[in-house]
Amino acid sequence: MKTKKILSVFIAIISVAIALDLWFGYENKTIVTTVIQVEDEDIPSSFSSFRIVQVSDLHNATFGYENKNLINALEKAEPDIIVLTGDMVDISRPDIDVTLKFAEKASQIAPTYFVTGNHDVKVVGREKLLAGLSEKGVTVLRNEKVVIEKNGEKITLIGIDDPKFLDDFMPYDDKTNTEKAIESLIGEDDGFTVLLAHRAEMIDVFAKTDVDLVLTGHAHGGQIRLPSKGGILSPGQGWWPEYTSGLYKEKNTQMIVSRGLGNSTFPFRINNKPEIVVAELICK
Known about the structure:
Shape: globular
Mean pLDDT: 88
Low-confidence stretches: none
Distance between the termini: 74 Å
Number of helices: 8
Number of strands: 16
Strand content: 25-35%
Helix content: 25-40%
Structural class: alpha/beta
Largest sheet: 6 strands, mixed
């Protein structure tokens, strides 16, 4: 009798372990696509319904063989451009070749642009990463901007380095360095401006520079999301972070925060599926 009881407990424990493993796998490997419409009177009519598909915080995660599931999700999103907003690699398990294979496939879907995140800055072999992205057809924006034209109208795409990169060349002050980097790039004739930056907690700086739209990540959706509270913990924002997912507005600046795709220090997502974001521009 005692042996049967022990066996029953053992089977129950194994069953719970298997169920948890399947659930965590589902939560951490099922990609969702979130469409966010961005309305602004400065968006040119030619760019109404223009789709910017954002990939953030991949952290060397893979979704299917050679990221087939992620590539399929990008194709289904029908992007006009794809933007990679940092932390494509992870310093604790760097595999630059995985990132480059993904980037090459992404750039074959639509023009693809990349800005650095803090992990991309710190990773061993970062020069290989940056050079490799360029070789694979990705436009690397390191405190640079490009004009995207359509039917004689334009928007301006601005990309800045993660502050940890800027700290290599300026005194250590993340917000001051970020503000200077943005202001050095903005021009009066830029039209509607889209800023690619890694860190969502910099929203006050972005608003101060008066850019129109910012695409960010870094927060990992708060890692564990509660239905009534949102994310629990975020890099750069700590406990109960304010900016973890979706669309925010401060002054004249709108900011989208992607929950991202991968994990870093904390290995699991709970109630927080990996996400790609479609920012769909709407001319008011």
